[in-house]
């Protein structure tokens, strides 16, 4: 199971990378805006900086919503760095663009996926990753984790190579549920990843071990 961090924040990306468990990064226009990154050149430089920090795939999202625009933008993003994965929305022209990039051997991440049918189309088009948004489904009283399990089953049944990248993860328990559902990748905010570390018995046990050591050793 791969761990991606879902942020454009350089410090948080460095912290996750330092932990030694990071396999990649996902961004989106909202996450870039949150960091105040604006202007085409600044945005491109930011992607390049992220690629220099991590070893794995870095998803960079197109802004265009028409086929020609997505092709032009995607090619320009892919040319920035070999680690760039072109992130493309699940719309009709997006499916066509994914097929185009897939035929060219370029990596794609199909984003804004909310149903098994959409995931099936992304796989048929040859997407490297499909990104079902589990938190946003939970927000509307649907079940994001059930969708992950459903897509994993369908992909396994037919042997699709597209990796299920669970996105819109809001908390630590989502990560564990995605692992149980068989997601290939999770992308999560740093605090959700760090939450996996926590257990009160670990803290209490460590405190006791150290106290016992220091009783005898000063
Ligand atoms: O990876 C997609 C993610 O950034 C969306 O998360 O919390 O805005 O639904 P959220």
Q: What Rg, in angstroms, do the CA atoms define?
A: 19 Å
Terminus-to-terminus distance = 43 Å
- Relative helix content: 40-55%
Q: How can the largest sheet be summarized?
A: 8 strands, parallel, barrel
Average pLDDT reading: 98
Oligomer: single chain
Tell me the number of strands.
Answer: 8
Compounds present? SN-glycerol-3-phosphate
What is the 3D form?
Answer: globular
What is the secondary structure topology, with strand pairs?
Layout: E1 2-6, H1 10-19, E2 24-26, H2 29-34, H3 40-53, E3 57-61, H4 67-78, E4 84-89, H5 92-103, E5 108-113, H6 116-124, E6 129-132, H7 134-139, H8 144-158, E7 163-166, H9 172-181, E8 185-188, H10 190-194, H11 200-217
Parallel strand pairs: 1-2, 1-8, 2-3, 3-4, 4-5, 5-6, 6-7, 7-8
Description:
The chain is α/β, with parallel strands linked by helices. 54% of the residues lie in helices and 17% in strands. The chain has eleven helices and eight strands. The protein has helices at residues 10-19, 29-34, 40-53, 67-78, 92-103, 116-124, 134-139, 144-158, 172-181, 190-194, 200-217; strands spanning 2-6, 24-26, 57-61, 84-89, 108-113, 129-132, 163-166, 185-188. It has an eight-stranded parallel beta barrel with strand order 1-2-3-4-5-6-7-8, surrounded by seven helices. Helix 5 links the parallel strand 4 and strand 5 (108-113). The mean pLDDT is 98. SN-glycerol-3-phosphate binds next to helix 7.
């Amino acid at each position: 199971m791969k761990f991606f961090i879902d942020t454009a924040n350089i410090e948080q990306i460095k912290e996750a990378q330092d932990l030694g468990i990071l396999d990649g990064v996902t961004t989106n226009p909202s996450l870039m805006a949150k960091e105040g990154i604006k202007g085409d050149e600044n945005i491109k430089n930011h992607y390049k900086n992220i690629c220099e920090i991590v070893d794995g795939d870095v998803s960079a999202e197109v802004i265009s919503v028409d086929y020609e625009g997505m092709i032009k933008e995607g090619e320009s993003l892919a040319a920035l760095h070999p680690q760039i994965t072109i992130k493309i929305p699940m719309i009709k022209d997006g499916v066509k663009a994914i097929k185009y990039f897939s035929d060219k051997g370029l990596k794609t991440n199909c984003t804004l996926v909310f149903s098994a049918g959409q995931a099936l189309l992304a796989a048929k088009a040859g997407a490297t990753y499909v990104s079902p948004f589990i938190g946003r489904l939970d927000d509307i009283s649907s079940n994001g984790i059930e969708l992950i399990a459903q897509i994993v089953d369908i992909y396994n049944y037919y042997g699709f190579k597209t990796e299920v990248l669970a996105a819109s993860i809001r908390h630590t328990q989502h990560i564990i549920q995605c692992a149980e559902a068989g997601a290939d990748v999770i992308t999560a905010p740093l605090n959700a990843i760090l939450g996996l570390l926590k257990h009160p018995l670990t803290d209490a046990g460590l405190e006791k071990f150290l106290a016992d050591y220091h009783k005898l050793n000063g």
